Each structure stands twice: as C-alpha cells, then as structure tokens.
C-alpha cells in the first residue's frame, strides 16, 4: 500500500481529489492483484452478512452459551419506540445495532470481525444505525466499510487491534476510530476531518482495559460496543463542526501503542483484572468453569501476540 | 512504509473474516487450525486427540474453541454455521474426539496440539492462533514450519540431497509460478526432509506431479489457500 499513516492516507486522498474509500479500493487492487470489481463485490457480501447479524439481534431471542448476554438490543429497540430518549434516535439506533451484532457474536452467530469479533458491533452499528437516517444507498454503505478498513489498516500495522495485545482500547477503541472517520466521509466531510474524528475517538478510549468476565467476549464487551458506537458518532460530529484534534491521529495511534505496552497483562484479555476480578465476575467464572488452582501462576499475564 | 513490517496486508484482514462468534482468535483461529490440520493429514481422520494449552486451555468451553477446532477438522470454514453443532456431527460421522488441557508454559498462549489417526496412519501437528483469525502451523510430524495457510502451498517430502531445491524451483519457474516464501526442515542430514513452498499463483496438479517425479522426492501435497 502507498500509505502506512493516517497523514499519508489523507494526503493521497487530497492530492487525487478522492475519498478515502476510493484510495483504499485502488490500493487493495494494486497490493493484491485482485480486480477492483471483485474487491467491491466481496465487500458487498460482508455488508450483507453484517446486516443479517443486525437483523437477528434485533428480532430473534438471542442468548449466549454462558447465559450472560442476549436480549438487550431488543430491550433498547422497545425503549426507542416509546419515542422519548435522552441520547436521541440516531445515536441509539446505532447503539442498538451495535449491541445486536455483538450479542449475536457472543451467541456463536455469524458476524464479520471488524476489526475483531469482540469489537464487531461498532462499525455495523454505526453504519446501519445512520444509513437510513442519512438516506444513503448500498454503494455508499460499502464505501463506508472501505474507509473504515483503510483507517483500521493503519492502526493494526502501527499499533494493535486485539484486546490481548493492547487492551480494549485496541479493540473497541480501534473500531470506534475506524467508524468515526468513515461516518465523517459518509456525512460529506473531508478526508482531513475524518482524520480528526479518528484522533478524537481514539483519544477517548486510551487506557481502556480488556477484562472479559470469565474470559468470555460478552461482559463488558457487548456494552463497550454500544459505547464505541456512540463515541464514534459524537467524535464524527465534533470533526464535522470543524473542531480539530490538537494531537494528530498518527500521534494518538502511537500513544495508544505505548499505553498498551505499559498496561499490565492482567488488563489484557486474561480475565485476571478489571471487571473479571470483581467478586461478581469471579462468581460467574466459578459458576461456568469451576475453580482453577492455576490462576496464581498466571499473574504475569497471558498475551495473544 | 519506512521501517515497519506490515502485519496486515489487505483491507479484508481488517474488515473480515466472516466468522461464527465469539472470538476471532479463540473461535475463528481454532477453526482454521483444525482445517489446516486435516488438510495436512490429507483425509478425514477417524480419531482426533486435541490438547489445548494456555488461554485455549483456560477458556475453550466459553469461546467454543472446542467446537470450532472440531468443525475445522471436518473441513468447515470459519463462517460455516455447522460449527456450532460440530461435536454432534463428529459423532454422527464416526470421528472420535478427545479434548484435554495441558500446562506447557513455554508454548504460545493460544496453542493446540492435534493428533489425527485412521487405519492408514497418524500425524501430530501443532497450531497457534495469533489474533484476528490469523494462525500459524508450527509443526507436523516433527517437521518444524511456520505456515499461515494464506497462500498456495506445496509440501515436498524428500530425501535430503543437494540440488533438490533447484530442481523443484525450476519446475515452478518454467510454469511462471512465483515463489513467495520457502522453508526447509529435515530430521537429520541426508534423511527425511520437507520443503514447503508458498506461491503467489495457483500450483496446478500437473506441476505437483512433475515435482513428484523428481529423483529423491517421496511425495508431494499441494494445498490451496485456507
């Protein structure tokens, strides 16, 4: 790819007078040798898969194998229909779709990892929550995914995207930044404004711990996907208002990398710290998996990568 | 690009894979390890003994790592909905599964050892899940490797001899098949050896049989990308 930083990505887009989505499609074709039409049609399939997961989560009785999660997306939809909410229709529609997707994920349903399975609700949540409101067609929705992907590509290569490697800032945080940049583009903002939205969204998740209760990608992950979606929309609005991040996106990504490295292993998907180590978290672990005498040995921390 | 190795190379490494939840490293990665193990074995096994280490051992029940890896052993892809019922399906087709956990702190935290068996033979492989659904197979029958499954791959089992690599490479060069990566492992000097070649282009069956015809080549297996 001809870009490895957000700045390079923005400059490419500005120099060519194109959107980030166009740059990503062209670079993908160049890097992989796969024709553009094939790349685009694969992304259409991903869009369909995401939509099915959203629909399942909003309409079916979803329950995870552990019984810890399921049904909250429908609860929120019911609340939304009453018409009186604090956050408003657009934000909560995105949030309910983010929850829907992640509940399906927790229940071993089919999802698209964006960028991971644990954070798979944020991007489809924002996309399907806003697309109807903004009146965009499926071509624009596919472009949203390419823009998200371009931003995620930079973050993944310069920092990390898995909770085990960098904490939840790397997972839901990355997804949130990817969505924020793509929302700006979908709403008619400039590539430069997308970069500011990326920076703002990522700044707001620095230091976020990955602390799955009983080691499962459910609690707190489903609710964090909801938080990630709302963070993305607010960050996009700030950027569209002309607000600039004092710290540029690439520097925030660098900061996230260093914060992730400084975080102890107990806070990186080991289920040894944070919410997982609360009395209630511990009780759920014992209920699901019984006691484990090996836990003391793990305090050094397990890492995924 | 200056100075950093790009681990992720495609937009679909970020937006994807399509998979059965809940964890890209514990579920999708495990399914791919199982699928790769079965491909290396080359046929449907009758018996599979799976040993989980590290985080796999601690959380496999909640993450569905067990069903995913068994689904993979039956050839299911990361997004195949049959994964959820893999344990039941394996019973139905007569594939005996045993799952145990082992404490091997020196291993990668997401490691699975799999021993596959049928009346014609057995094979023991080791795979690790490195995140986002990406995997690496590190060992098969004591041959060391570092195989992602992302490319067309030729496995050339042969007797360790000079000139063999050149002969194999020239078959590929004649057919304009570009070698992307190559690794070599042998049990001892002059003994059984394994040459693994990953290529950019498809390796046709006829290229495979031409390589198999080279002196000192015992047999060849060609696998498409996972």
Automatic annotation (TrEMBL), chain A:
What Pfam families does this protein's entry cite? SDH_alpha
Q: Where is this region: Disordered?
A: 276-305
Q: Which InterPro entries match?
A: Fe-S_L-Ser, Ser_deHydtase-like_asu, Ser_deHydtase_asu
Task: List the pathway annotation.
Answer: Carbohydrate biosynthesis; gluconeogenesis
* Residue span(s) of domain Serine dehydratase-like alpha subunit: 17-276
Q: Which co-factors does it depend on?
A: [4Fe-4S] cluster
Quickly give the catalysed reaction.
Answer: L-serine = pyruvate + NH4(+)
Q: What is its EC number?
A: 4.3.1.17
* TM stretches of this protein: none
The EC class name is: lyase
Q: Which keywords annotate this record?
A: 4Fe-4S, Gluconeogenesis, Iron, Iron-sulfur, Lyase, Metal-binding
Renumbered to this chain, the Basic and acidic residues biased-composition regions fall at 292-305
Record-stated family: Belongs to the iron-sulfur dependent L-serine dehydratase family.
Please identify the protein, giving its name as recorded. L-serine dehydratase
Give the source species.
Answer: Paenibacillus woosongensis
Q: Which gene encodes it?
A: sdaAA
